[in-house]
Amino acid sequence: MGRGRAKAKQTKVARELKYHSPNTDLAALQRELGGSGKSDRNFDDDYKEYVDDDEDHSDDDPDNWVRPTR
């Protein structure tokens, strides 16, 4: 028991979201979605700190893996 109050609150929140949408800045949305097609961000720079160029990746090839013996 006790689910009635929680379900009533969820229903109320869902109804508010469905029928009472917040004010949307349509001009800002259009600017965001209608971009120039190319990004001025360089995603390689964003992840540069996580890449270790000195690391040996010779074991990354799955063809070189050996099945463990029992």
Structure notes:
The protein has 70 residues and is mostly helical. The chain has one domain. 41% of the residues lie in helices and 0% in strands. The protein contains 3 helices and no strands. The radius of gyration is 26 Å and the shape is flat. The model has no long low-confidence stretch (mean pLDDT 77).
List keywords for this structure.
70 residues; mainly alpha; flat
Strand content: under 5%
User: How many DSSP H or I helices?
Assistant: 3
Query: How many domain regions?
Result: 1
Specify the oligomeric state.
single chain
InterPro entries: DUF3073
Pfam family, one: DUF3073
Organism: Micromonospora sediminimaris
Protein name: DUF3073 domain-containing protein
What is the gist of this entry?
The chain has 70 residues and is mostly helical. Helix content is 41%, strand content 0%.
